[in-house]
Amino acid sequence: MSDRPRVLVVDDEPQILRALRILLRDAGFEVLQAASVEGALDAAAVRPPEAAIIDLVLPDGDGIDITRSLRGWSEMPILVLSAVGEEDAKVRALEAGADDYVTKPFGPRELVARLEAAMRRAGPGQAEPVLRADGLELDFAARTVRVDGAEVHLTPIEFNLLRLLARNRGRLMTHRSLLIEVWGPEYATDGAVLRAHVANLRRKIEPAGQAPRYIRTDPGIGYRFAA
What we know:
CATH architecture of the largest domain: 3-Layer(aba) Sandwich
Order of helices and strands: EHEHEEEHEHEHEEEEHEHHEE
Helix content: 40-55%
Domain Response regulatory: 6-119
Shape: elongated
Main location: cytoplasm
Structural class: alpha/beta
CATH topology of the largest domain: Rossmann fold
Largest sheet: 5 strands, parallel
Keywords: Cytoplasm, DNA-binding, Phosphoprotein, Transcription, Transcription regulation, Two-component regulatory system
InterPro entries: CheY-like_superfamily, OmpR/PhoB-type_DNA-bd, Sig_transdc_resp-reg_receiver, WalR-like, WH-like_DNA-bd_sf
Distance between the termini: 37 Å
Domain OmpR/PhoB-type: 128-227
Radius of gyration: 19 Å
Number of domains: 2
């Protein structure tokens, strides 16, 4: 019996499936593979994986179907693979429960790093009372924020937005999920209010004149706390 973490890989292109199998095995994973929705669900039922990498486009459905089915019984990390330009499908996959996505063609090291990060986030552990990351200190209980030792004054909404992103560190959060969590369901489609608050938050915590250090944008999809 292998003690390697088991990853379900689903793609209907044989060359990609083979490349992923070799890549993940070399990185220390045991690989279960499937080329269809039905095959993926069968494989997961017989030998439940600890994570999954799923292509969005499959011959008998799509990766969203698999994601939704897996989320019915598992909190395993799920990454979706997508072609450039499939923004709507990426959003639907994330809303169905996927943790992240990787766009084809992808770099092997990026894929393994995304998978390992998702698995670390899913691992056991207690919530941090204080999060420290690259000069930022976020005290969840005291609701205080410091950047490079200096206290930064945030509005309640800005703090709640930053706290939600930080507690999902590294994970892509869609516009819709952020709006619902921070503002409520009635704001689910109000992208303008989210963009305005992210801009205000960045002005307060990000280094002036430099690329964002903490809050990264995935264009058309959402934001992630990347520090």
